[in-house]
Amino acid sequence: MQALKVAAVPMHVKNMDKYVLVDKEAYNKLLDQTTHGRTWIMDDLRIWCGDKSIKWIKENILENPKYSRQIGRMEQQGQIIHKGRGSAWKFKASVMADFLESHWEELPW
C-alpha cells in the first residue's frame, strides 16, 4: 500500500463554474459510455436497449413501419449498415442513440 502524499498547490482558475472535478475512474466510465465517434454492432444496441432481444429490436425499431422512413434514411446515409439476411448490423452509435432518445416514450418497453 502506498502512502498518500498531499501538497498544497496554489492555483488560479478562471471561470470555476465551468469545471467539475471528477475522479479518474468516473471519468473513464463516462468515456466508455459516450457514443460520439463510435460504431455499434447489434449486441451494443441490445445493451443500450436494456438487453432486449434481436427479434424485439427488429420488430419494434428496425423493421417497424412507423420508423421505416427514418431507418431508411439512416441506411442511405451509411448510419445503419446491413448487407442482407444473415449479415452483421452496424450502427453509427450517436445517431442511433439520438433516434432512441427521441422515440423512447413510443417504444413498448
What's the layout of helices and strands?
Layout: H1 24-33, E1 39-41, H2 42-48, H3 54-62, H4 68-76, E2 80-82, E3 89-92, H5 93-103
Antiparallel strand pairs: 1-3, 2-3
InterPro entries: DUF771 (IPR008489)
Organism: Lactiplantibacillus fabifermentans T30PCM01
Pfam family, one: DUF771
Separation of termini?
A: 47 Å
| Strand order in space, largest sheet | 1-3-2
The mean pLDDT is: 92
By helix and strand content, what is the structural category?
Answer: mainly alpha
The stretches of 5 or more residues where confidence is low (pLDDT under 50) are none
The tally of helices reads 5
Radius of gyration: 20 Å
The main pleated sheet reads as: 3 strands, antiparallel
Protein name: DUF771 domain-containing protein
InterPro entries: DUF771
Organism: Lactiplantibacillus fabifermentans T30PCM01
Pfam families: DUF771
Describe this structure in words.
This protein is mostly helical. The chain has a domain at 38-106. The protein is built from five helices and three strands, in the order αβαααββα. The chain has helices at residues 24-33, 42-48, 54-62, 68-76, 93-103; strands at 39-41, 80-82, 89-92. Strands 1-3-2 form a three-stranded antiparallel sheet. Strand 2 and strand 3 form a beta hairpin. The longest helix is centred in the last third of the chain and has 11 residues, at 93-103. The protein is elongated. The mean pLDDT is 92.
